[in-house]
Amino acid sequence: MPLEHLKRLRRHLLAWRDISALKGQFADRVREMPEPGESMLLRRLLILPSDPWTLVGAKGDEAMMQAVTTRLRQYSADLQVGVITATPGAEAAAGQLAFASVPAWDCTLAEAATQIKAFDPDAMVVLGADVLDGYYNPVTASRMLLLADVAARQGVRVSILGFSFNNRPSSLVKPVFEGLSKRVAINLRDRVSFDRFHSFCNAPCRLVADSAFMLEADFSGDTVQAVEHWSTSRRAAGDVIVGFNMHPMLFRHASADQINALVKSAVSSLRAVAQRRPVSILLLSHDYRGHDGDDVCLAPIALALADELGPRLNYPTTRFSAAQLKAMASFTDGVVTGRMHLAIATLGMGRPVAALTYQDKFQGLFAHFEYPERFLLTPSAAADASKLTAMVEEFVDRLQELTQCVREHLPAVREASFVNLERVLPSNAPA
User: Fold this and answer.
1) What is the pLDDT of residue 20?
2) Could you give the CA distance from residue 231 to residue 279 in angstroms, rounded to a whole number?
């Protein structure tokens, strides 16, 4: 057995030891949930992100956090929000979002329980995103679930926001899910994930849509307005505007050769499409996490095409908020993206998408919209310029009918997104 696997297994067993001790520790002082009709306050909300190390490096996490807090403040205007952090950088990011930092990650579960109790939340949301199936790290997934369990056993109303579940989940997370307190609401963000999860374990779950569909776009900022002006001018010149996103995480632990293949394919494809269609290209980065970030791919793509495309290419390098990126998606006629939450932002603005898939995430998203799966492209196919070109060209040619499809289904998807918060709403929330 590889050494790293043994270390991972040991960490998992230690986590289980800690939670078993915690259950005994708190067994005699668990606050009971209010009976129906009792007041359920919402004074303090605790957020457990899927990335407690950077907090906002992935704009998807930021989108979910901002969407949820904005929505809940409609019912509790004075809501105080805390977020669990693991690094000084994440603590600083929390401050910029006007959130309190709760250092309940890089410690024992007993210490985490103390930190959670000290913040005294009425409700907690867990940003499951695409990490809870254990594909990336079963220990991280287990720890997130165990922290949710700890909070629930202290009487906190807990909702795991709609998350994806791939077809290769780690068996290590199965007993963790099945051991969760019944006070933890488990939400899957698409039918495909829901069915996979239901087959995987016996934990009760609900079908929702991603919580980021609740996010309101932010059109402020000079750079955002500059992109809008560019888009308007390119449409006046007769072009359609296509957003494009690509990133190294399309391949798990991507090698330099794999990244180079993706970049080369994108350059060839975008060049060919621009030669044969009246198209201007907006390169959109949606993840700023260093070697996993989108600029690893987008910067060399922009460099290769800048002289050739001239004003038909726009590559803003400002770091935008998730809400600003959602606004910029609305400046396009459609977006080709490898990032799930850029796809959600685009669809949420009534624009169509084509997706470069990874982690089995996009099939379920497309199913919400009854959207054609031929606009899903695997990483290996995305690295093939002929296949990528064919998909992008068909996408451009069918933008009008795809837009209609998105707008027909968007109201129902937004309603399904609101279901994420049913468990954590205060008693004054409308039925």
Assistant:
1) 58
2) 11
